[in-house]
Amino acid sequence: MRTKFLFSLLSNCAVLALVGAGPGRAATPLELGSRRELFVDDFLIAKLTGKAEQLLHHPVPQEIAIVHDAPWEGSGSGYHSVFHDGTKYRMYYKAWQLTVTADQKVNTNEHPLFCCYAESADGIHWRKPELGLHDFNGSRANNIVITQAKMGQASPDGGHPAVFLDDNPAAPADARFKAIVSSNSPKGLLALKSADGLRWSPMSEAPVITDGAFDSQNLAFWDAVHGVYRAYWRYFTGGVTDDKNWKPTGHRAIRTATSKDFLHWENQRDLTYVDSPSEQLYTNQVKPYPRAPHVLLGFPARYVERGWSESMRALPEREHREWRAKTSLRYGTAISEGLFMASRDGVNFKRWNEAFLRPGIERTGTWNYGHQYLAWHVVETKSALEGAPNELSLYAVESYWTDRSSALRRYTLRLDGFVSIHAPMSGGELVTQPFTFSGRTLTMNFATSAAGGIEVELQNASGQPLPGHALADSETHFGDSVERTVVWKGGTDVSAHAGQTVRLRFVLKDADLYAVRFAP
After folding, report:
1. Domain holding 80: CATH number?
2. Predicted model pTM
3. pLDDT, tens digit, for every residue of 116-144?
4. Structural element, H or E, at residue 511
């Protein structure tokens, strides 16, 4: 039986909906309004029959977006924040050099950790502006925006940044940009603010969150749907032993809290997962999905210590792997990849157990610890195909640990294209939970083969077809579109049923259904 969810708002603990397990079960109708709904969880699904299933899709590799090869950057650069700001895209990241040699083992002290800045007009071609803000080896010709220099009494760690554009309408002009960074002393997370995204100052002299491990990309953002700031940070479930290999007694986990002012945090909770094992999760990368901001999407990095084996020795850069293992076995034999998860309350997540972004074909700079750490977060960019709609760009780390630089590769995915309801040519069906809506037409993001198709039925709450909107009245919809209006024999208008409790039935053949929306 499909798992039942209890969705509750973290901000006010109000129950949203109790989702039933089938069309014959009474359930409080969901209130969809005219928002876009994705199939990244079971929220809208009552029943899948035939060969229909939820199918996880995977980003497609594109070009290297940026190489971190400046003297103040290096092979340990990562923890990227990427977002769209008006006419430009902004990127912030850790700049660090990890030097690995046969005799010196791992040297992490060639230069301090910095937070650096890059920008782009299209999210594809990136540049590092010379900002002239901070000194490095006697010169200010660099793109450094946060160092480890004290800000008043605060001691920021520029190497663990998470920067965002605050769209809280109450945010003052001097705090249009905000950041969470680790604090060296005292331990915790510092809140920073900036008017221009380049010059930063502390919002508080002391860390605003102190309960955690924080040795990762810890982050926070404004959740406009619920009217709160949310923070997500690294937490160990059982603490850490004090040996040189820094072995945790529990698991690398994720903790969250909410705040009204970005300074005072409450409602601390550890994330929970639907039908997922306890695993080592290094980052979290949680943020609202811009096209459906009531859904929080996360891209945590799964960290796996595999130990030595013939498969491990066969992976790329064996010599460097062996050198790293001299300092700590896990430096040489741990590997990582990107996962995907989704939530509607910020605490309970549907986490896909299969990899979202695998390490991929073996080549130099891959299959190592730090590989495929996804940037925070997705952005919408133009397609390389002339006439095609926009697509999603994601960015992931390569070439971590070795030589003098690391790189960030861009990946693409269709809009809303994380998970689909998929059926082969032999067919399958989806029946939704009962819901109410507002709008005049039903649109869907879908793709079929030339021979495949999707037919749609609008039902009443008990599962009976509504006159004029039965399956027999539906056109067979085929093509590949991010927003196609559903057509019945009588036309497209469904506004007569707005506000009523209804269901949808989709019959699919060699097709994928990614998202649906009732449009005004």
Report:
1. 2.115.10.20
2. 0.91
3. 999 999 999 999 999 999 999 999 999 99
4. strand 502-519
